[in-house]
Amino acid sequence: MRPAPPGRRPHHAGRGGRAVAAVAATLAAVLLQPLTAQAAAPPAAPRPAAARAASALGLTTSEAVWIDRSTVAWNGPATAASAQLLASRDGSVTLRGARPDGDDTRRLRLTRTVLSTAQKARFPHLRNHTAWSVDPRDRGLVRDALRGQVVATQRAADGTVLAATGVQLAGVLDDLYGTAAAKARLGPVFHRGRPTLSVWAPTARTAALELDGRTVPLHRDDTTGVWSVTGPASWKNKPYRYVVTVWAPGVGRIVTNKVTDPYSLALTADSARSLVTDLDDPALAPGGWSRLAKPKAVPLRDAQIQELHIRDFSVADPTVPAAHRGTYLAFTDRGGDGSRHLRDLARAGTSYVHLLPAFDIATVPEKKADQAVPGCDPAAWPADSGRQQACVAATAARDAYNWGYDPYHYTVPEGSYATDPDGTARTVQFRRMVGALNRDGLRVVMDVVYNHTAAAGQAATSVLDKVVPGYYQRLLADGSVATSTCCAGTAPENTMMGKLVVDSVVTWARQYKVDGFRFDLMGHHPKANILAVRRALDALTPAKDGVDGKKIILYGEGWNFGEAADDARFVQATQKNMAGTGIATFSDRARDAVRGGSPFDADPGVQGFASGLFTDPNSSTANGTPAEQRARLLHHQDLIKVGLSGSLARYRFTDSAGKQVTGAEVDYNGAPAGYAAAPGDAVAYADAHDNETLFDALAYKLPAATSAADRARMQVLAMATAALSQGPALSQAGTDLLRSKSLDRDSYDSGDWFNAVHWDCADGNGFGRGLPPAAANRDKWPYAAPLLASVRVGCAQIEGASAAYRDLLRIRTGERAFSSATAAQVQSRLSFPLSGPDETPGVITMRLGGLVVVFNATPQRQEQRVPALAGTRCRLHPVQAAGADPVARTASCAAATGTFTVPARTVAVFTAH
User: Fold this and answer.
1) pLDDT greater than 50 at residue 568
2) What is the Cα–Cα distance from 644 to 720, expressed in whole angstroms?
3) Is 626 exposed, middle or buried (0-12, 13-18, 19+ CB in 10 A)?
4) CB 724 within 8 A of CB 853
5) 173: pLDDT strictly greater than 70
6) Which of 175, 546, 609, 776 has a beta carbon 3.0–4.6 Å from 746's, enabling a disulfide?
7) 847 has which bridge partners?
8) 730 and 753 in contact (C-beta within 8 Å)?
9) What phi, psi does 907 have (nearest 5°)?
10) Which of helix, strand or coil describes residue 25?
């Protein structure tokens, strides 16, 4: 969830941070180049005709796109008199004397045509391409042609080859096989004890099953392109792989791949083999699984979500048995400090735990014996030392830690989180984790990453692209795999990749009783694909499936960037497009205003509402003059008000200039601040796993001399802007405990030392564990080192902040005014009575039904007089009046004048009837 100016949204920092940084640096270099220098550059000299022809005759690219059985889209030389497709079963087409030729080449003739309106709608990025129609006399050759090498050529009238290229096949494969294959049941399916194994591989020359030391032929269905075989009951739990012979464009030859099942349901250690597993097998059900009682479902608009990494949760928790630390089973240890803390949050109003990726990933050795351990004692070095990060980095690629955004097999639990990664123990233990969290009063959300794979082509951890090369991955104009997501992008717009997404989510819901899904980079999915997921889940019923799919929540990252940006290839599942669907997207508007600046600032000291902008300025010159700071702070307050409304596009209020505006009319870096149609369309948050934790961001931004007590107070105030908004709110696990990652902005591979949650305040909050890893943070070291050596918080601040946050959760979940179901209800209940040119900088006063909430981010006590409430009975909310924060307990109101007095750096909630 890495925000950038609209229109240029790179992927979040995880696992792609280095790649994104490189792309951003290149883009910045281009954008910042002086215009005079660009103008002064001499025009490129015309290339000789021979050179132009040679560059067009390249079989290492795939610029032609076969969109359906009758049409190829391909721009080529205007002088071309004819075009053809050359098909070779053995992949022998080569350039011989600049003329494509092969041993068994068959030719499919093409005739120039135009794309139809329907074809342009299906492939908008090709709308301006030249179209070529496959000669009707040759269409009987199409199916067989797709099972080998296909080359497109264009020739002059005299037969001279003007252009030659490989061919992208996803469109024609969908046209020929998609409708029928979409109904197929893939992977292992049991019927009366006998398994059928099925794999979709329409381009394969041959396919077989490698199982139990022998190779078993698979049978091809020519209608669906599915290869399958039914075996005896004795195959159950046997390891297997598919043996698939296909044309692989990336290496330019026919290959025979031994590959695991894209629809694997269980695996051996390190994903070496799939297992013929029946997830309905009673042996895989923990005690009480079939009778598991779920906590009461909480609508998405009311969800209070804790985002949590499975290993972070317990790896440093000495109250958990050593064998369980860092595993699924740690959640079953009710006496562990982490579990106790989650129960405290659940009692206060937290309703969901959002688990960072827990499916099978490619970046962690699953056997403990193979996991590297840093060869040092990081605790021995000073808080501002660079030695800790160097030691951690030395083993990072081989240790047990990664965030997990590197999908290997989408529908199998990750093995490194199981006490035994070899076989079905991970299935049982994942289910035990879900059951334990449910019994603790928390529903479970999975972070799913269908927008890319860990690898493509013939790479060791490639799966989909080894089975149907060039289909599951999204291809760019030259046929290369799109990597805007940081990794090998997938193409959910293609029928069978879209089907895999739906089938996988449904399996997690039915077989693992997962209560929600958070889609990584959801904007790289078609909106239609995410809506198909919603429909499939809605069809699940307790009687038929053991779960109520209508109660499963969905949300994701609706960022708009990359090759799919601005609906270039399909209508995306972005922030604006998902409004009104009941599927939420993260809203970064208020988050940036609360924290200040953006994750890409060269100087991390740019301040915001909760970090002292104008009211408690730091020494950074990046903040501008006092007048500039004041103006920016008041605009930030407008952004936060939009966030408090649930990011509603049509919510109308008075802005800081005194104008009546809607949420959509408030500017956020050139885009509308408000985009939601209803409460629940936008997820509010002040921090998440991406970028610095909230504590670390405030460490950079608050004045260096800010006391530990005041740092804790500003943390609570920042969290309150999300927790007390309309719609769902998310916080990173440990944020209420002032969690720090020692200023690491991209901790996806930074190991346990920087990432572990410390539930016991005696262990600190993670700050001062050394300079953050150089790869993503070296440019910030000059800012970080002085802070790491000086900033400290203790148990009083850590426990006090957590208790104060829990009080706010109790208010949020106990007051119906925070749970508006419609935009009209929000409009009628919510107002900001002191907005306008006289609004106090650093203070937001919100009236919500019979409540008044004052966010005082200033270092002084503030009085906020609301004339309309003069004579109204008011008092500090009972939860805060008897609550954990002694400073908040001093907040007061004067009924006669409608004046609310709130201590410095405090959010106070009043009843006013």
Assistant:
1) yes
2) 10
3) exposed
4) yes
5) yes
6) 776
7) 831, 852
8) no
9) -110, 130
10) helix
In the chain, the amino acid numbered 48 is P
Using alpha carbons only, how large is the chain's radius of gyration in Å?
29
How far is it, in rounded angstroms, from Cα 314 to Cα 890? 37
Length of the chain: 913
Give the C-alpha distances (Å, rounded to integers) separating 404 from 343, 356, 449. 25, 7, 9
C-alpha distance from residue 51 to each of 43, 47, 166, 478, 497 (Å): 18, 6, 19, 18, 39
DSSP 178: I
Report how far residue 855's alpha carbon sits from residue 186's, in angstroms, rounded to the nearest whole number: 54
Query: Active site includes 414?
Result: no
Amino acid at 874: C
- With 0-12 / 13-18 / 19 or more C-beta atoms within 10 angstroms meaning exposed / middle / buried, residue 219 is exposed
Q: At residue 28, does pLDDT exceed 90? A: no
For residue 898, count CB atoms less than 10 angstroms from its CB and return exposed for 0-12, middle for 13-18, buried for 19 or more.
buried
Kindly name the residue from 312, 422, 520, 807 that is annotated as catalytic.
Answer: 520
Task: Pull the structure tokens for residue 194.
Answer: 């006998």
Distance of CA 487 to the CA centre of its chain: 13
For 857-898, where are the E strands, in sequence order?
A: 862-865, 874-876, 892-894
Burial tier of 543 (Cβ tally within 10 Å: 0-12, 13-18, 19+): exposed
Q: Residue 191 forms beta bridges with which residues? A: 194
pTM of the model: 0.94
DSSP characters over 254-287: EEEEEE--TT-S-B-GGG-SEE---TT-GGGSPT
Structure tokens, 438:
């449910």
| CA pair distance 250, 469, nearest whole angstrom | 8
Q: Band the pLDDT of 56: cuts 50, 70, 90.
A: low
Q: Is the dihedral of CA 295, 301, 303, 309 positive or negative?
A: positive
Handedness of CA 799, 802, 808, 810 (dihedral sign): negative
Measured distance CA(370)–CA(518) in Å, rounded: 31
Distances (CA, A) of 839 to 92, 104, 188, 612, 874: 75, 79, 64, 16, 22
893 pLDDT band (50/70/90 cuts)?
very high
| DSSP H or E stretch at residue 755 | helix 751-755
CB-based contacts of 779: which residues, under 8 Å, 6+ apart?
A: 602
**pLDDT tens for residues 437-491?**
999 999 999 999 999 999 999 999 999 999 999 999 999 999 999 999 999 999 9
Confirm if 605 and 623 have CB atoms less than 8 A apart: yes
Other beta carbons within 10 Å of 751: 26
Active site residue 665: no
Spot the catalytic one: 414, 447, 515, 557.
Answer: 557
